[in-house]
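For reproducibility, we list the full input for the alpha-D-galactopyranose complex.
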Amino acid sequence: MHDPVEFRSQHLARFHADPAIFVAPGRVNLIGEHTDYAEGFVMPVAIDFATLAGISPRSDGKVVVYSENYQQERTFDAATLPAKASNHWSDYPLGVAAILAGEGHKIPAFSLSLWGDVPLGSGLSSSASVEVVTALAILSLIGASYPGPVLARLCQRAENEFVGANCGIMDQFISANGEADHALLLDCRDLSYKLAPIPADVALIIANTMVKHSVAGGDYPTRRRESEAACAVIAKHRPGVPFLRDATLEDLEKWGNEMEPKSLLRARHVISENLRTVAACDALMKGDMAELGRLMAEAHWSYSKDFEGSCAEADTMVELAQDLPGLIGARLTGGGFGGCTINLVEQRHAKAFAEELGRRYATATGIVPQIHICHASGGARKLA
Ligand code: GLA
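The corresponding predicted structure, in tokenized form, follows.
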């Protein structure tokens, strides 16, 4: 992570005001893919890639946002902030401001600097970390606060309603509510959650295929529509099934023939993934790593074959990990169609595993991957 002391002095030099500093993490999802918007279960972990925000008040009525990553500054009038996205990095902080304004907060004039090391477009939730850190920063300036789950919902709305990406709640939730050394099993229906400790001898190895993914791109909303179409067929017979969370594999046996073939497959992934995710949390709580690894493998191939949410490179990354010493489980993580795999690996093998996986992937694909040994970190907070 960027040194917060240096980050603070850069803000001071640029804006001539001492900022309050906040941090919000990216995430990796251990299991539970495309289940959040079906009101199902997910089990993500906050990671030590994060976004920092520095905020200080201004007296000229302006909102000035600066991204150190893009080396770009944008200025707006606090009284007339944009109400629409402009396909620019500033959509994320402005979207948060718009949602907070809609909640009745008067947005004051401020300078905001942002810097992050969550790899962009890699399925590690860089955008959620920007939203959550911006929300904390603006709220602190206006002397307001929300419980973590509510904060997550507001940030999800910024992404849905302002940025225009139809994501679920997982990424914003874990960025706002993650706990160091724990995975979080979230029930996306009522936002209740359970923390599951990650044993100290288990390493989280994130392997970036370097194939870019985007939730705003066409595939994510298409898959979402296809799975929701299957749910609509079930709901004709069983009106108590508003979301796939409420559906069963038996429902698919009974009424699958009324569905588009692709919809049936998408639904089979989502329904079985919910069962796997709850079982995976039980396995982690019991320390049954073999079962957890088995569920992760099953989840990957369900995501790849039934949901068609993977890509050749991610399948290769998962396959190449299989016979490496220390592997517990590997699968593609996040929105799909590229991005990263998550590998749970016995700590004592972590370094050799990361090196060998990188070598094998480069040889197999001709692409040099980025492999990171990560830690389960805490959720968004103010830095002292
Ligand atoms: C993206 C979305 C999440 C979730 C995942 C898939 O990360 O932002 O809400 O739907 O994809 O599990």
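The chain has a mean pLDDT of 97. Residues 33-34, 36-37, 167-168, 170-171, 215, 334-335 surround alpha-D-galactopyranose (CB under 6 Å). Both points were considered when choosing residues for closer inspection.
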